[in-house]
Amino acid sequence: MIYLSTGGFQNLTPQSVIQKFNEQGIKSIELSGGKYVAQKKIIKYLKKRNDVNYSLHNYFPVPKKKFVINLASIEKRIFRKTFSNIKKGIDISNKLNSKYFSFHAGFLFNPNIKELGNKFAKVRLQNRKKSIKLFLNRVNSLAKEAKKKNVKILIENNVITKENYKRFNQDPLLLTHPKEMIKFFKKCDKNVGLLLDVGHLKVSAKTHGFNLFKAHETLKPYIEGYHLSDNDGLKDSNGEFTKKSWFYNKLKKNVKYISIEVYSKNLKKLKSLQYLIKKKYDKYH
To answer: What domains are defined for the chain?
Structure first.
């Protein structure tokens, strides 16, 4: 399934974005963030629009008071809010007959929501080994719950810029380096897969200095989905991609979940990108 992400429409309600997408004939939508709408109301609306294929990602359902989802947090309040929101996402996915629920890998601190995609304030970091173990245990716990509801968990790799690496003199995020990703997914429950954000991997490769193409190849056994966008390698800008983008001819053939995560308001352009990838994958089947 080739979805279009609503991630570039954070100032609209999910209903408004769905309506906009539907006017362009876009019927496969990855719901990610947006303005808050009461959960009962949004579920009712989504179930009513049963002509659309939905998938839920990260900040969906949108919490009434926004916060940064962090399943690796040692702060109990953040963990409880994160765990609760992800469980709600799994429940709604089940109600919508959606096979996947995806969310980001954890952090070694609790960033402010305004810092995402920008500079992080320098704070004390959690212990990396302990945090990975904590994150893994929590992911596996959720995966078992999700399996009972016929939902598979996908974990998205984080993105680390050179600026944020230098600020901490180390990586303050989990799962940005392929070695750490491979080690992590080897220990995951079978109901967990990697949602590889190719834009995140490109920036992280520049920061860490690993080979982008080799990293993608080594990660292929764990990839169960993609987030597709492009950038300059310095910042995750969610820019448009073309047939010349680094990943276009390298994509894993047998993935069942792909989301176009390009932050453009030009719906005709987004639809053309969706069609470009659909046409590519139709050749494989």
So the answer is: 47-255 (3.20.20.150)
